[in-house]
User: Fold Phage terminase, small subunit from Anoxybacillus ayderensis.
Amino acid sequence: MDKKIKAALTKKRKKERERIVGLLKENGTYNKSLEPLLELYLDAYMVYSQVYEKWQEEGFPATKSHTNKAGATNEMKHPLAQQTADWNTKMSKLLEQLGLTPKTQKQITGEVANATTDAFQAFANKWD
Assistant:
């Protein structure tokens, strides 16, 4: 890997780490025991970033043509689109474990859900 690229990736990782640790400290939930989970999140973030950038460079194609052994050509979901979605899901789960999603924020702070959401949920529950 080129030294410039490696340095840029290291800088990007460090910046994201500072952002996440800052959020955790702001919430009063930062603790050294979160370090392994934080490292997993940062790894997922770096992979996601690389896949997303590559997909962006290609113009965000949704599908890709694939010719099978029989010679038939089919459209399939673009592999980078799938990988982006997969890594996004992994990052979301890790952020939830770190307590950095709206749902976990409400649990931590003890906030009550907003009235609009409650009204919508009550309406939706009528149909269950």
User: Anything to note?
Assistant: The two ends are 54 Å apart (CA to CA). Residues 3-112 form one domain. The chain has a mean pLDDT of 87.
